[in-house]
Structure formats: structure tokens, C-alpha cells
Amino acid sequence: xxxxxxxxxxxxxxxxxxxxxxxxxxxxxxxxxxxxxxxxxxxxxxxxxxxxxxxxxxxxxxxxxxxxxxxxxxxxxxxxxxxxxxxxxxxxxxxxxxxxxxxxxxxxxxxxxxxxxxxxxxxxxxxxxxxxxxxxxxxxxxxxxxxxxxxxxxxxxxxxxxxxxxxxxxxxxxxxxxxxxxxxxxxxxxxxxxxxxxxxxxxxxxxxxxxxxxxxxxxxxxxxxxxxxxxxxxxxxxxxxxxxxxxxxxxxxxxxxxxxxxxxxxxxxxxxxxxxxxxxxxxxxxxxxxxxxxxxxxxxxxxxxxxxxxxxxxxxxxxxxxxxxxxxxxxxxxxxxxxxxxxxxxxxxxxxxxxxxxxxxxxxxxxxxxxxxxxxxxxx
Length: 380
Hints:
By secondary structure, this protein is α+β, with helices and mostly antiparallel strands. 51% of the residues lie in helices and 13% in strands. The protein has one domain: CATH 1.10.630.10.
């Protein structure tokens, strides 16, 4: 059963969680005004995400490693990337992330409004990612400015503006990798240098491949971490008893709680696929070459899977799609999980209480972005 709905990339001012909650029971698959097929239910989103042959991830004209690759090509690049994002590879950076989070929370004013998205989430994301990748701290203002510009471009939906912002970020990446490649053995021993020395098909990764990988690691993750921090803080302010419980919870309990908070309010709305042949999914026939959107936000709020969206981190963990599912599950899941847990712990430890600012404390994001644009809180 299908129906036409406004393009979910231009539904300005609409809370897409509430909108898809309304649509999903009656229209599990909808065709929007742009001609895209949007999957809203958990079952169909999982089915498409796991069917890599019929639903191709090669959807962009730009090189996107690894999320825009299919088949063996994806497997080969993913093997390189996974080495940098394994538990063993990331563990040495935990102490650094914790120091960054504590220092940031200590810097925040007490008794005055701060924005959890921009003042906490964005700054922590930039500092943590720079520390992990070995990028100079002097890049922080430039990266924060780029995040704001990227955010504006994404919200505008203007492809030319988004392309210009993307090129600006690629230039930042090239400014980091160029001196490392030129320095050879004298380059600093950090993750970015190690990646510059990595090989595929018996050759060094090209500049274009390096830019694509680092763009995926940073360009997307910086904004995602910031938005996630906003969602987490908003939930904890509304549930002070649960925030007090998390102060003494284990790392595993905190991580499970964060996953469940993000399931209920997932800032990362959707991914695209292209059908490689005619498919029937959810009783709907979709032609070959059609654009299909996997709406993670809607699937993660499917009332038939998540017991009418009660809060239950343990029971809902196995079906949680915050980081996707299938071969293209987010390679940075562990990194993001640890960074969000560390940031949350630092905030809870550094403030005896969190409350909303008195006026204009919350502003929700508009499509194609989820979560909150602004979460103004007071730390005491």
C-alpha cells in the first residue's frame, strides 16, 4: 500500500518522528514527491539493508568508501578500515578521550545557559577526533566553522551549496595528508599517517581514496556525535532520576542506555539504496533502478517491534538499528559508542544537576537532519 507524501528531505519544521509514527501503521512503504520509495517499518528496512544484491549502496556520483561500495570491493576496503576501528586499535585513546571530556566539562560555565549540541557535543567531537587522527589542535576553529556551514547547507537542501561545503572539507583533509605523504618516513606516527601508508591491490591508497575514507570518519561523525549529545542531554534533563542512576552504572549499562535513548530519537534519519532489479518488499512492487530510502528513525520506533516504544535498553538491544545492520553497519560504531559514553559520564560527574534554560531551551532539527538543533541547559 503506497501513498504520496511530501519529500522527507524538505518537510521543513516537521518532527519526522511524529510524522512517521503517524504514517507507519497505515503506510509501511510510501513514495515521496521526489519519486523515492521510503521504507518505514522495521521489517522492510532490515530486509533491504541485508539484501546487498538487490539493494545496491552505490548511490552517489562521488567516491564513498566504504559505505558507497558493493560486493568484494566493499569487503576489501572495509577490511582496511576495520583495523583502525577495532577494540584493540581504539583502546589506547580512551584515556585521551576521557581527559578531553573532563577538561571540556570543567571549562563550561555554571549557572549560565550552554548549548549541549554546539558548546558540548560539537567541541568534544572535534577535539576527540583530532586527538584520534593526529590532526593539529589548531584546526579546531576551522572544523567547528565547517560543521556550522555544513549544517546550514544540509538543512537548506541546496545541492550546490552542499557540494561547495563538501569541497571545503576535502581541502581541509588534503591539507592534513599532503605533508604526511611528502614527509615519508619522517611523518608523525599517527592514525592519519598510518592510513597514508596503507595499501590495497598492492599499491598505496590514492589521494582520492584517503580523502573519501577520512571524510567518512570525520565529516559525518562530527555532526552525528554533536547531535547525539544533544539528544542524550535532553533525555537526561527530562529524566533526572535516570540520570542519577547512570552516575553509578557500569560502562555497559551506560552504553546500553545511550543506544536506547538514540533509538527513540535517532538523529541519523536515512540511507539510500538503488534497486538492481525489480523487487517485491512489504507487498509493494518496486522497479529496477529505483531510489529506496531506509528510514532508520522510523524503523527504530516501530511500535510492533519495540513494545509501543517503552524505554527498555535490554529488551530492545537486539533490534536496535541506530548503527544500521548488515554488511554496511557503521564501521565506527565502537568509536562512537565509547565517545558518547565518555562524554555522558564526564557531564554527569562534572555537574550535580542539569536543567533546561528558562527560555527557548529546545529547538528540534528539520529534515534531512534529526535530533535537536539546540538544547540549552544549565549546569550546577
